Amino acid sequence: MKRNKRLCALSLGLAALLAAVPAGTAFASPEFAHTAEEWERLRDNVMEYGELADLIREYNTTVYQNQIAYENARDQDFNDAKDALWDQANAMFDQADAMYPDDSYTMAPDGLYANMLYGSAMMEYYAKTALQASESSVTDNTMLRIRYDQQEAGLVMQAQILMNSYEQLEDNMALLEDSRGLLEAVYQSTLIQQAQGMVTQADVLAAEESISNLEANIQAAQKSRDQVKRSLCLLTGWSVDAEPDIRPLPELDLSRIDRMNPDVDVETAIANNYDVRYYTKQLENVSEESSRKTAQSQIDNAKETVRNQVRTLYETVLDQKNTYDTALQALALEEVNKRDMDLKYQIGTASALEQRQEQNAYIQAQVNAETARLNLFQAMENYDWAIKGLVSGS
């Protein structure tokens, strides 16, 4: 099944501009930009983590508009290019707001709220840098290209965070559904106990309230999951109501941690950093002494930000690795408990409700381990993005 994902996210202005362009081709690069197999992969109804960067490049409206503005700038039409940067800055402010987690994320797995907050803060920072570039009187083609590349990288990172968040929310939904089954079993058991005079009506009402509260939590979790999915679809070119087959994230490669060396990597991060490169080019373009001092100060501040964040992101990786190890240990213990409970149930020394409770505890441990895995994966991705030049300056 092919997906309908080309002009779906166009603004009215861009739609008018492209009215004469055949649907399905407006965003895409020329056919020779990818092999036939690669185009088939990008155009199918499957969304995979490894193709997010290509999807953003080929079908994201911001990237497409940036490319038009850059071509205009190459023709020396800098005012149009700066106007486009201003428009994109405002669009990215909107994206940052959309990614900011609301109260519905209170039932989300640990770490997901922080990941979404991090992504929102990064998007807000890219918006500020675009706004700054649009207002600068010394912006040239190279500086524009740096800011456009920074925005594109930021959008890819945002899509990765959203895809990670979506998988965590899917896992959490499975736990909530199982918990609903457990609470319903508890409610039925409470009714039986009431009939036998073992509990009061208040106990029955409490069991009913537990189910009602969980239903509200499930609805909030569904809202969060659907919101993340919509944002991910729009970023990668699907329509807002599309139903792509979103595949799981790659498995952990713990050897990535062994290869991290912040003392060495920080120099690569500084050399690649978009802000450092941008302000360095700005310094080359100004001659007035106060402007040069300002540009040099911005370079120094950007370098210091990179140094601090590379170290912080590395420590976050180590913390998440410890959390993951702890979660795996807890899961191993719960596997033993579940095996023992299943045996007790088989020989008649444990009730069906007790077995059901242990099953829920086991699923909780599974979800905790998977959440820790995904949080560690995201922490490693954030570190790698910093080395590739993507670090928030605010």
UniProtKB/TrEMBL annotation:
Keywords per UniProt: Cell outer membrane, Coiled coil, Membrane, Signal, Transmembrane, Transmembrane beta strand
Q: Which organism is it from?
A: Candidatus Lachnoclostridium stercoravium
Protein name as catalogued: TolC family protein
Transmembrane segment boundaries: none
The terms describing its cellular component in GO are: cell outer membrane; efflux pump complex
Q: Which residues form a coiled coil?
A: 159-231
Compartments annotated for it: namely: Cell outer membrane
- Provide the GO MF annotations for this entry: efflux transmembrane transporter activity; porin activity
Q: Indicate where this protein is primarily found.
A: membrane
Signal sequence, renumbered to the chain? 1-28
